Amino acid sequence: MAGMPTHASIVTAAAPPSMSKVESLVKSMYEPGPPKKINETEATLRLLQRSEHGWEMANALLSSSDDYVRFFGALTFTVKLNADSLVAVSDSHFSMQC
Fold first, then answer.
1. What own/partner pairs with CB < 8 Å and gap ≥ 24 does 67-72 have?
2. Residue 12 has what pLDDT?
3. Per-residue model confidence (pLDDT) at position 17
4. What are the residues whose beta carbons fall under 8 Å from the beta carbon of 70, sequence distance 6 or more?
5. What is the CATH number of the domain that holds 39?
6. pLDDT by residue for the chain (98 residues), tens digit each?
7. How far apart are CA 71 and CA 64, in angstroms?
8. Residue 39: which domain range?
9. How many angstroms separate the CA atoms of 53 and 11, rounded?
10. 8 in a domain, yes or no?
């Protein structure tokens, strides 16, 4: 599909990804498709969840009319809480050793 952005370009963009693109990715996880495409989509969503835009994205997804998208928004909050708390603990452990 020439001209279509890759999943990676959605993640590496400096600006937050469009919510319509994220919603489309989430919804595609619940449709049949080739395993390679599903794995790529899952990896992209995982990167988006952990990105600097994860909090904002999670909040926006909660207002979707789609149950799967809202669930993914809630899941993103959980992922961000866990990932960011690990970074905070790691940073404080490092600063205590210095």
1. 68/26, 68/27, 68/29, 68/30, 69/23, 69/26, 69/27, 72/26, 72/45
2. 53
3. 80
4. 61, 62, 63, 64
5. 1.25.10
6. 444 455 555 655 567 789 999 999 999 999 999 999 999 999 999 999 999 999 999 999 999 999 999 999 999 999 999 988 766 555 554 455 55
7. 10
8. 18-97
9. 10
10. no
Examine residue 78 and state whether it is found in any structural domain, yes or no: yes
Strand, helix or coil for residue 7: helix
Please, are residues 33 and 72 in contact by the beta-carbon 8 Å criterion? no
* Long-range contact pairs involving 83-92 (C-beta distance under 8 Å, separation at least 24): 83/49, 83/50
What is the reported pLDDT for 98? 55
Classify residue 5: in a domain, yes or no.
no
Residue 66 forms part of a structural domain: yes
Number of domains in the chain: 1
